[in-house]
C-alpha cells in the first residue's frame, strides 16, 4: 500500500484522499490552519463536479445546504434594478443539476467523507522536501520529518509545495489585474432571498447574497495590483475604494469593520509547463488556478483529484506514468477554462462607465430566448469525458 501525503484540506485535498483511499492507497492530509476554514464566498456548482459529488454520496446534502438562486440583479446607486436575468437558463443547460453553496461548506462535506478513515494533521505545513529513490522525505513545521511514497500539493493558489518543489510563486502566477474580498454579516437588512445583487462603478463591484440563519455575504471585486498583507491594510484599501460609493457601499463597510474574518486575495491564474516533478505532483489551484471569479475552481479541483487518483490506480503505482497521463487528459480542458475565466473577470468589474453600460446590455439580453445559451453555454458545458476507473474499495464510502 503506497503512502501519499496531501498538503491542503480545502477541496482538492479531501477529494483526492477519498479517491486514493477507494483505490487502496494510504493518504494523509496536512493542513496549515488549525481547523477547516469557514466563511469565504459562495460557488456555483454543476457539471462534472456535481456528477462526482453524486458518486461520492454527497449530492443530497449539497442540495439541502445549497441555494437555488432565481435571479441575478444589477442595481444602481439607489438600489433600483437596471439589468438582470433569471437563472432558468442555467437549470436548462445543466438539466437542473445546478446549485450555489458556500465553498467552505463543500470543503467540510468532502472532508467528512474521509476524516474517519485517514490521518489528518491540522496546524502544520510542509517546510522541506527531499526526493529520494524510494520516496519523499518531508519536513513538517511542527511534526518533524516523515517519509511518504508520494507528495501531492493541494494547497491552493499560494501553494507551499509548489514553491518548494518547482520554484517561486512569481514564476507561475498570472495576475489578472483584480482582487476580491468577502465576508459574512449577521442581522443585515434588507434581505433579498434567492437573488444575487450587484452594484458597479468603474473598476469595482459590490455584490450581496442573502444566506440562511439571518446572515448575508458581501463580495468586493476591484481593479488592483499591489495588495496589503495585514487585515487593517486590507480594510483601509476597501474603505478608500468604496467609501464614496453608492447603493449599500457604506453599510457594507460598516459591517466589515465588525469582522476579523475577511477573505482577501488577488484574482490570479497559475500556469505551469508541468504539474509534476519526480514524486511530487500538484492538483487543483496549486497546479492550474483558473481564478476565483471563474466560479469553477472547486469543480475543476474535484475533477483533477478524480483523474489523478484514477491514473495512479490504473498504473499500479507507477507514478511517472500516472502523472503523465493525468496531465495529458486534463491540460487542454483546463487551458480552455482559463481562457474563458480571463474574459469573465473583466465582465464583472469593467473599468469604464461605457464598459458597465455594455455589460448591463449583455446581461439584459440573457432574457431573450436562446441568447443566454449561446453566450454562456460553452462555458457551462464540460467538454471532457472522465474515464471509468476501477475503485476496489469504493463501497466502503457508501458512494454510488
Report a brief summary of the structure:
This protein is α/β, with parallel strands linked by helices and 400 residues long.
Q: Looking at this structure, what is the CATH superfamily?
A: FAD/NAD(P)-binding domain
The fraction of residues assigned to DSSP E strands is 25-35%
The overall pLDDT, averaged over residues, is 90
Level-1 CATH class name: Alpha Beta
Could you say what the CATH topology is called?
FAD/NAD(P)-binding domain
- The shape, in one word, is globular
Structure classification: alpha/beta
Put simply, the count of helices is: 13
- Helix content, binned percent: 25-40%
How does the major sheet shape up? Answer: 7 strands, mixed
Q: Do you know the CATH architecture?
A: 3-Layer(bba) Sandwich
Structural Rg: 21 Å
Distance separating the two termini: 24 Å
Low-pLDDT segments: none
Total domain modules: 1
Strand tally, please? 18
What is the strand arrangement across the widest sheet?
Answer: 5-4-13-14-15-12-16
Structural description of this entry:
The chain is an alpha/beta fold and about 400 residues long. The chain has one domain (about 5-175, about 270-385): FAD/NAD(P)-binding domain (3-Layer(bba) Sandwich). Helices cover about 35% and strands about 25% of the residues. It has helices at about 10-20, 45-55, 60-65, 90-95, 105-110, 160-165, 230-240, 250-255, 285-290, 295-315, 320-350, 355-365, 370-380; strands spanning about 5, 25-30, 40-45, 70-75, 80-85, 100, 120, 125-130, 135-140, 145-150, 150-155, 175-185, 195-200, 205-210, 215-225, 265-270, 275, 280. A seven-stranded mixed β-sheet has the order 5-4-13-14-15-12-16, sandwiched between helices. Strands 7-2-1-11-18-17 form a six-stranded mixed β-sheet, with helices on both faces. Strand 14 and strand 15 form a beta hairpin.
Amino acid at each position: 500500500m503506497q503512502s501519499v501525503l496531501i498538503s491542503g484540506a480545502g477541496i482538492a485535498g479531501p477529494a483526492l484522499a477519498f479517491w486514493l483511499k477507494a483505490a487502496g492507497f494510504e493518504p494523509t492530509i496536512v493542513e496549515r490552519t488549525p481547523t477547516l476554514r469557514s466563511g469565504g464566498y459562495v460557488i456555483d456548482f454543476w457539471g462534472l463536479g456535481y456528477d462526482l459529488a453524486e458518486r461520492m454520496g454527497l449530492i443530497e446534502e449539497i442540495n439541502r445546504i445549497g441555494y437555488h438562486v432565481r435571479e441575478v440583479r444589477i442595481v444602481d446607486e439607489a438600489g433600483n434594478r437596471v439589468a438582470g436575468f433569471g437563472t432558468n437558463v442555467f437549470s436548462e443547460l445543466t438539466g437542473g443539476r445546478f446549485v450555489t453553496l458556500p465553498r467552505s461548506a463543500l470543503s467540510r462535506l468532502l472532508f467528512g467523507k474521509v476524516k474517519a478513515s485517514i490521518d489528518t494533521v491540522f496546524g502544520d505545513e510542509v517546510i522541506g522536501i527531499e526526493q529520494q529513490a524510494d520516496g519523499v522525505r518531508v519536513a513538517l513545521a511542527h511534526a518533524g520529518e516523515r517519509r511518504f511514497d508520494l507528495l501531492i500539493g493541494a494547497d491552493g493558489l499560494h501553494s507551499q509545495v509548489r514553491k518548494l518543489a518547482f520554484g517561486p510563486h512569481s514564476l507561475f502566477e498570472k495576475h489578472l489585474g483584480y482582487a476580491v474580498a468577502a465576508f459574512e454579516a449577521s442581522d443585515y437588512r434588507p434581505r433579498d432571498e434567492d437573488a444575487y445583487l450587484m452594484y458597479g462603478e468603474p473598476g469595482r463591484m459590490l455584490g450581496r447574497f442573502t444566506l440562511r440563519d439571518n446572515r448575508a455575504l458581501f463580495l468586493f471585486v476591484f481593479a488592483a495590483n499591489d495588495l496589503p498583507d495585514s487585515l487593517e491594510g486590507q480594510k483601509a484599501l476597501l474603505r478608500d475604494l468604496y467609501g464614496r460609493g453608492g447603493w449599500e457601499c457604506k453599510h457594507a463597510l460598516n459591517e466589515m469593520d465588525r469582522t476579523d474574518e475577511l477573505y482577501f486575495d488577488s484574482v490570479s491564474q497559475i500556469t505551469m509547463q508541468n504539474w509534476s516533478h519526480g514524486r511530487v505532483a500538484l492538483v487543483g489551484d496549486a497546479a492550474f488556478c483558473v481564478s476565483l471569479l471563474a466560479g469553477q475552481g472547486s469543480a475543476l479541483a474535484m475533477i483533477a483529484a478524480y483523474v489523478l487518483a484514477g491514473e495512479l490506480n490504473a498504473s499500479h503505482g507507477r507514478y511517472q506514468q500516472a502523472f503523465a497521463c493525468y496531465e495529458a487528459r486534463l491540460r487542454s480542458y483546463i487551458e480552455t477554462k482559463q481562457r474563458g475565466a480571463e474574459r469573465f473577470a473583466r465582465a464583472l468589474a469593467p473599468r469604464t462607465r461605457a464598459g458597465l453600460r455594455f455589460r448591463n446590455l449583455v446581461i439584459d439580453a440573457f432574457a431573450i430566448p436562446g441568447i443566454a445559451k449561446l453566450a454562456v453555454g460553452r462555458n457551462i458545458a464540460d467538454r471532457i469525458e472522465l474515464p471509468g476507473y476501477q475503485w476496489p474499495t469504493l463501497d466502503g464510502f457508501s458512494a454510488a
